[in-house]
């Protein structure tokens, strides 16, 4: 019933009063003309109140005139009347239109540029870079080409490891991950802190600018502040920001573990081959002669061949002959020389560590630990170095 | 002759267990408590006042007597009457 009510509301209906003497005849006429009437209420002998749909009203008026009755509309309900009223309230309709278009217009503008994850690039420099390329607050969102923005940023900064440009609502979000650059390359006109780029024990700390907040011998974790760019004024309590600079040497450790089996299993083919044939239709296969494979250890090879060659028609015929080849193998245990393995894994581990080491670091010790656990030789190579662990992080307000 | 034909129709309907109102074109009167009467397959309104409604149908006149009767909706096939119903009479 609710659905009918909603439907009637959308179509629109009127409440009418009919005055006349032959009201029953009128109702019957309305029935035969298929006019839908509801809430018919007798008010008095000569008067009747009823509800009729908007489309039914016209048809009803024709009958009413024929039967000599009078019709009076006392109420109008429904969407068509509301829309009709809007015709006369032009300013109101205009206001609605202006409101909707204003919302659409405002939401198609760029309102904010959000930059996440920068530490070594000054924020306003990046914003200015975008502004120079006509990407600033207030432009239309559809004019922003994300690929182009990425290209602009990447061409200016060559030390980014990750860059993602996204438009979310009215915001442009630039997500950046930086690689560590040499402290000299960071723009000196911006205040910054010097933070640790890795865990280590401080050996020497020289602050050229800024205030050293760690001491010799102290263990620092990654991202701890080493030299602070926030300075306290000597004369007053005020704080001011400087571009912290300095050298922080720390003892750092690198280690790498390699595990190798001492007894290696190797498969050697014996030359004996067992063949099975099958048929596949659309990758669902039937295997003929599916007996047991007479080998204990084997390798399997599958060869497919079209029954009818349609290659020249560039068609892949779905029915294929399949040959399964089982080659017998013998598994041989090869025991390797432990001394050779040790030397080999030490070399491999050192190679791995060397990839992580920076060029300027000084190696102070190299240490290997070998442990044999059943069949596994575990080699741990540890290298201790002294290196500059400082990394500049711009202080953003 | 007409009567014979109707009898045959009736017995066939009985044998096949068909709904009577559909097969024999009879009106179907549903009464809900004493507040609502629903008549399908009617043939028009004869009289309509607040306390009496007479409706034509194939089997004759259906007379509904009650207080503050209101025709809730009226269609070609169906008529629904609301109000407090006291008496339903079929005058054939």
How would you characterize the overall build of this protein?
The complex is a heterodimer of chains A (397) and B (92). Chain A has 397 residues and is α+β, with helices and mostly antiparallel strands. The radius of gyration of chain A is 43 Å and the shape is flat. Helices cover 26% and strands 44% of the residues of chain A. Chain A folds into four domains: 2-83, Metallocarboxypeptidase-like (Alpha-Beta Plaits), CATH 3.30.70.340; 112-178, Ubiquitin-like (UB roll), CATH 3.10.20; 193-251, no CATH class; 263-335, no CATH class. With 92 residues, chain B is of the alpha+beta class. Chain B has one domain (27-91): Immunoglobulin-like (Sandwich), CATH 2.60.40.2000. In chain B, 21% of the residues lie in helices and 53% in strands. Chain B has helices at residues 2-16, 20-23; strands at residues 28-32, 36-40, 45-48, 52-57, 60-74, 78-91. Chain B has a six-stranded antiparallel β-sheet, with no helix packed on it. The longest helix of chain B is centred in the N-terminal third of the chain and has 15 residues, at 2-16. The relative contact order of chain B is 0.19. The model of chain B has no long low-confidence stretch (mean pLDDT 87). The A-B interface holds A 23-24, 27-28, 30-32, 34, 36-42, 45, 48, 50 and B 44-50, 69-76. Strand 2 of chain A pairs antiparallel with strand 5 of chain B.
């Amino acid at each position: 019933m609710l659905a009918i009510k909603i439907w009637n509301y959308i179509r629109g209906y009127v409440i009418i009063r009919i005055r006349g003497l032959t009201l029953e005849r009128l109702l019957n006429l309305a029935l035969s003309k298929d006019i839908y009437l509801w809430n018919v209420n007798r008010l008095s002998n000569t008067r009747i109140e009823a509800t009729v749909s908007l489309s039914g009203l016209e048809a009803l008026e024709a009958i009413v005139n024929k039967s000599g009755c009078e019709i009076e509309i006392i109420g109008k309900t429904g969407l068509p009347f509301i829309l009709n009223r809007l015709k006369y309230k032009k300013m109101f309709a205009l206001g609605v239109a202006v409101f909707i278009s204003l919302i659409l217009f405002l939401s198609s503008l760029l309102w904010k540029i959000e930059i996440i994850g920068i530490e070594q690039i000054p924020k306003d420099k990046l914003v200015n870079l975008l502004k120079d390329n006509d990407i600033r607050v207030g432009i239309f969102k559809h004019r922003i080409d994300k690929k182009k923005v990425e290209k602009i940023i990447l061409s200016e900064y060559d030390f980014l490891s990750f860059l993602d440009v996204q438009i979310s609502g009215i915001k442009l979000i630039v997500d950046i991950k930086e690689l560590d650059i040499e402290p000299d390359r960071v723009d000196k006109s911006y205040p910054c802190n010097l933070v640790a780029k890795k865990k280590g024990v401080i050996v020497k700390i020289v602050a050229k600018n800024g205030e050293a907040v760690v001491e010799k011998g102290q263990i620092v974790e990654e991202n701890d502040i080493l030299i602070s760019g926030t300075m306290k004024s000597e004369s007053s309590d005020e704080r001011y920001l400087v571009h912290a600079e300095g050298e922080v040497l720390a003892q750092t450790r690198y280690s790498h573990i390699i595990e190798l089996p001492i007894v290696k299993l190797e498969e050697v083919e014996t030359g004996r081959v067992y063949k099975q044939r099958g048929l596949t239709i659309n990758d669902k296969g039937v295997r003929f002669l599916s007996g047991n494979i007479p080998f204990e250890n084997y390798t399997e090879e599958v060869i497919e061949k079209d029954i009818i060659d349609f290659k020249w028609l560039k068609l892949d015929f779905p029915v294929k002959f399949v040959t399964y080849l089982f080659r017998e193998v013998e598994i041989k245990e090869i025991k390797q020389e432990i001394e050779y393995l040790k030397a080999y894994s030490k070399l491999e581990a050192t190679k791995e560590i060397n990839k992580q080491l920076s060029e300027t670091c000084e190696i102070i010790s190299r240490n290997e630990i070998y442990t044999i656990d059943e069949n596994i030789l575990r080699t741990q190579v540890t290298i201790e170095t002294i290196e500059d662990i400082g990394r500049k992080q711009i202080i953003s307000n | 002759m007409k009567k014979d034909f109707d009898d045959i129709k009736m017995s066939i309907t009985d044998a096949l267990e068909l709904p009577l109102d559909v097969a024999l074109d009879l009106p179907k009167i549903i009464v809900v408590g004493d507040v609502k009467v629903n008549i399908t397959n009617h043939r028009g309104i004869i009289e309509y006042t607040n306390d009496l409604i007479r409706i034509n149908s194939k089997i004759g006149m259906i007379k509904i007597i009650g207080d503050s009767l209101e025709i809730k909706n009226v269609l070609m096939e169906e008529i629904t009457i609301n109000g407090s119903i006291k008496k339903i009479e079929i005058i054939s």
